[in-house]
Design a protein that fits this description.
With about 280 residues, the protein is α+β, with helices and mostly antiparallel strands. It contains 9 helices and 9 strands. It folds into 2 domains: about 100 residues, lambda repressor-like DNA-binding domains (434 Repressor (Amino-terminal Domain), Orthogonal Bundle); about 100 residues, no CATH class. About 45% of the residues lie in helices and about 15% in strands.
Length: about 280
Amino acid sequence: MSQNAESQVSQTPAEEFGKLLRERRESRELSLGEVAERLKLSAKQIEAFESGNYENMRETVFVRGFLRTYGRFLDLDEQLVSSYLDKILPGTGVRSHIVEQGRQSSSLNFQNQKIGRPFPTWIFGVLAIAAIGFGVYVWQGKSREENTKQTATSEADVGLGQVAAPNVNAENISVLPMQNSASAAASGVQTAEPADAELVVKVRYRSMLVIKDKTGKELVNRVVPANSEHRFSGAAPYDVWIGYAKGAAVSYGSQNIAVADHMIDKKTAAFAAGK
């Protein structure tokens, strides 16, 4: 008993801790090579840790961190490991603490290491979709703004504020003269149009357009878009009023009506067609 006690007393803290590491490793049926692979160290270093003979290792400054990592890998009690380290390497706490932090943050592949959750890549997808949606929103906003400006400009050119609900009467309508049968026969021009002849009005610019049939009923009384075409038949004669008549083309049956000859001001034309 006394000899056994003396052998235990004669062991240094490094040897005692090394023995504890070796016994714990063997109880888990792990070889030196397996542990070295897991801890990213050499088998020679692991053997030195278990023998307690590492005072002359070139990496002495890292020994404390290596030993603590080895203890954690074997699930040894943290306080027990710390007590051995304080005995084995006194006065190296500050430097070893820095080393241990570096080791803990490294990507060692051993069983009991707490592996941080990887950054969720789906966040990038959400951010990309949000960026695309924001871009579309901005683009649509700019498009609406430009369209509003264009509409305002067009309305200013057309003078919509001055053409609302025009008064189409005899005073501001010019009647197209019809040739009599004798002059028509002499000139060879056919003047008589069928009762169902079609009135065609084409406006070049956005404009207010008012068309009334023979009963005075308004067939159209609204702002029409640029380059639009409007056809009417079976209700001649028609009273035509075009708020912005520049570039407009009008025909009734086979006859083209010279809109420029019926301008009542610089922009507006008014006339009767089909009489």
